[in-house]
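SUBJECT: protein chain
CONTENTS: sequence, structure tokens:
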Amino acid sequence: MYFKHFRMRIKKDIDSCRTCIYRQMLFGDLDDFEYKLINKARTERFYRKGEVIKNQGEKVDSFLYLRKGLVKLFKTDKRGKEKILSINKPGDFVNLLNIFSKTNYKYSIEAIEDTLVCDVDLEVLEHVICTNGDFAMRVLNRMSKISDEIIENRFEQAQKQLKGRVATILLFFADDIYHSLKFDLPITRREIGELISMTTENTIRTFSEFKRDKLINIKTKTIIILDKERLKIIAKSG
């Protein structure tokens, strides 16, 4: 397996897990001793846009959650061709579904914006899970929710026509990622096509049709949503 090179930097953005804005999403049931264990086993790692966080084939030995930035998960086939699988935003637990597999990553993780990741030693996390039933239940519930969301999103996407899929991904970036009607696309048209199961040609054509119909304006990578309500109708109707 070919590994990409990366330059990770250690940062100290927060002093303790207790001060993390995402604490309640998973770590809300820990006592003082457990917080100290997790905090001691935690490393904040900063990656520049384009740097690889984990390579496909690497051993899963830590729990990752995204504090700032944006990452993509992608898989590389035997010919070296990459296919994007998903995009993760701040607050997402990037590898939660894989941490108990005790095997290797089936995909790679790459920063598509400057990104800050908290990396928690897996052995320490497993210890806390074994000794704290409430925390273990929270982890299981979170894993179940993530799995349900993946299934639901895949099902909904499969039901949509081409325009509905592109409208949905544009609204995802506008509402869930950037919280703005104007944003720079962090991935290429080809990657967008892979993400929503469309060819590059159909993706580019649909973008052009949306521009022609004055739903959006495009300036290189910058997208400006001109008619969000019509875009929502297209996304909903498929």
About this structure: Residues 160-237 form a domain with the Arc Repressor Mutant, subunit A fold (CATH 1.10.10.10).
